[in-house]
Design goal:
single chain; 5-stranded mixed beta sheet; Retrotransposable element tf2 155 kDa protein type 1-like; RNA-binding; RNaseH-like_sf; RNaseH_sf; Retrovirus_Pol_polyprotein
Length: about 220
């Protein structure tokens, strides 16, 4: 096999982002594709309904509307659609935001092992979901996204919500806490720092495993 040059280990959440597509879904309100955007560190994902005709340019506009407003710009994008897609997507996104593209912006077509695993898991999850809700799965994508982001991820041992925001969202039926001890700002900072260091270590191992396999 040829040499693999995996991504550098991301410094933080939403610093390396994968953009991929789950295609050939049952048509619902003219949608037949889900654009899946995943943070390589925290694994938080956004599911965006779109069409088979979605190009790199239209995908960039979807990213601006649904993801950029929440997380800003990453250091690098990665996609199974290859380097040309990533380059066109990135250039169009920066054009839409009226930002001059930095020469240090990274272009990658190969993903790390964990990201590939997440994408496979998401594809299986969404295909089952869309098959069961064939006529209106697009309306229910917010619920699917919430459930995915609120489950403990096997690769990181946290929910994506927890690693990204420091807490899990309220469900509306939580039991009242038995004591009123509040976490201090320093305790919160240390907890999040430890969690992200654990994830970076796991990503480093996945990177080494992928490089060994391909080399």
């Amino acid at each position: 096999m040829g040499q693999l040059h995996p991504l550098l280990i991301p410094e933080g959440c939403w610093s390396v982002v994968s953009v991929d597509f789950i295609i050939e879904l049952p048509e619902a309100h003219r949608y037949d594709v889900v654009m899946v955007v995943v943070d390589s560190v925290g694994k938080r994902a956004h599911f965006i309904p779109t069409h088979t005709t979605c190009t790199a340019l239209s995908a960039a506009n979807l990213y601006r509307k649904h993801v950029w407003k929440l997380h800003g710009l990453p250091d690098a994008f990665v996609s199974d659609r290859g380097p040309q897609f990533v380059a066109e997507f990135t250039l169009e996104l920066y054009r839409l935001l009226s930002i001059k593209l930095s020469t240090s912006m990274a272009y990658h077509s190969q993903s790390d092992g964990q990201t590939e695993h997440v994408n496979q898991e998401l594809e299986q999850y969404l295909r089952v979901f869309c098959k069961e809700r064939q006529d209106n799965w697009d309306d229910l994508l917010p619920e699917a996204e919430f459930q995915y982001n609120n489950h403990v991820h096997s690769a990181i041992k946290y929910t994506p919500f927890m690693l990204d925001t420091g807490q899990n969202p309220r469900m509306g039926f939580e039991p009242r806490p038995l004591n009123s001890n509040k976490e201090t700002a320093n305790e919160f900072f240390e907890r999040m720092k430890l969690a992200r260091e654990e994830v970076k270590a796991a990503l480093a191992k996945a990177k080494d495993d992928m490089a060994w396999y391909y080399d």
